[in-house]
Amino acid sequence: MPAFMDCDFLLNTPTARSLYHEVAARCPIIDYHCHISPRAICEDQRYDNITQVWLGGDHYKWRLMRCAGVDERFITGDASDHDKFLQWAAVLGRAAGNPLYHWSHLELRRFFGYEGALNERTAEEVWNLCNEKLRSAGYSVRGLIGMSNVEIICTTDDPVDTLEWHDRLAADAGFATTVLPAWRPDRAMNLEKPDYLDYLARLEAASGEAVHSFAGLWRALDARMEHFARRGCRLSDHALETVTFVAADEAAVEDVFRRRLEGQAPSPREADMFRTAFLLEAARRYRERGWVMQLHYGCRRDNNLRMFQKLGPDTGYDCVDDNTSSAQLAAFLGALDARDSLPKTILYSLNPNDNQAIDTVCGCFQNSEAVGRIQHGSAWWFNDHLAGMTDQLTSLANLGYLAGFVGMLTDSRSFLSYPRHEYFRRILCRLLGQWVEEGLFPNDSETLETIVRGVSYENAKRYFGFPIKK
Questions:
Q1: Over the stretch 243-279, which tens digit does the pLDDT of each residue have?
Q2: Are the beta carbons of 292 and 286 closer than 8 angstroms?
Q3: Is the pTM value of this prediction over 0.70?
């Protein structure tokens, strides 16, 4: 029986072990989708204790603690950081089968050198060890990034953001990692939201463009896109509950927008019409600029209204949604393709039942412009565990081209999350190793190494065309 999380963790064949240790583990990280703070990087933030860096803002952990019956006081409430950590340790110690068990122990090993198992019996030991490390040299935010061999980070930024922290980081020759903005215009797209008109006022102020029409909205957004492009932005990101395609002519869209400016709430169909028109316009501009479009869907957010009102969004109350059909997704991409406006695109669904649909829709719109022009994004959120990653990789291999995949992202708010890339790479090597051992793929080390190096690092670097810090 193998020891828990030894150096060959998840690597159950000789081929897997060779591919991981000799190839995947040596690749830098390109984290092209995350939610970390560029200001924290710029100011090289430090943390007083492990709770601050590990539990603060991590709704994955909060959700698990709630499932285990922990009182909210020890999750997002006023309990001390020490007591919150003790509660977390007790829950984690019994979280067999949950990916947080693996992620957390990889993080303890890679950043703090702790080789044991965290539970209620070892909590004090781990608390003291981690806090001592965090007080030592090299354990600032930049130090944690450097330990993880991160080459490129793409943050998630609203069109009205000044990007001042990106400017400062770009000018800082002492920091080797490239930090780039990613365009997230959800608030400009979701006109059904109660604060939409307030947001438009902010957009007008940031862009210097008056927004009195749909066309005016796009003049303002174009100005902000140029602001992002000058700072190296290479990709957009759109969060959708579901992908819908409700085509409408220009006059109908302008009418919906005009009535919203007058204070009238749109109907659900009008909101879908506007969202369709918005995404069609956005995609055309992405293609012109060479940006990648990310669409992630299959998520119903903020289901616990009482807790949403208390804590706000992104606090652990989202669930899988099953409303997106392959017909709607294909119709949207097809409309873009017909107009020669389809950019390189990555599709993610929170619903694992969408794997085959995504892979077959992707296959309808591939061409020679790029390897894997339309990508099936990495298993994420509720799916970035052993079974979920294996299923996504297998579906992509069965129905598409695994060798062209752009690989893993953290989608994280924590600077300790980079071992998720290691977790993904081990699972990738495990899967390829199994195929070799079962005679399903030849033991061709040169080809296998090319696939692993590509999926781990090189494909993303080529696909996004990132500017690298000199």
A1: 999 999 999 999 999 999 999 999 999 999 999 999 9
A2: yes
A3: yes
| Separation in Å, CA 270 to CA 257, 297, 329 | 9, 19, 18
In tens, the pLDDT along 76-99 reads 999 999 999 999 999 999 999 999
Nearest alpha-carbon partner for 37 in 145, 160, 173: 145
Alpha-carbon distance of 164 to 184, in angstroms, equals 17
Q: What is the DSSP letter of 316?
A: S
Comparing CA positions, the residue from 228, 220, 227, 226 lying closest to residue 204 is 220
Identify the residue whose tokens are 């702790």. Answer: 114
Task: Give the up-direction half-sphere exposure of residue 88: CA atoms within 13 A in the CB hemisphere.
Answer: 29
Residues 389-426: tens digit of each pLDDT: 999 999 999 999 999 999 999 998 899 999 999 999 99
Three-state DSSP at 80 gives: coil
> Under the phi-then-psi rule, with left for phi > 0, alpha for psi from -120 to 50, and beta for the rest, what region is 207?
alpha
Six-digit token string for 167: 């400017």
Say how far apart CA 145 and CA 29 lie, in whole Å: 10
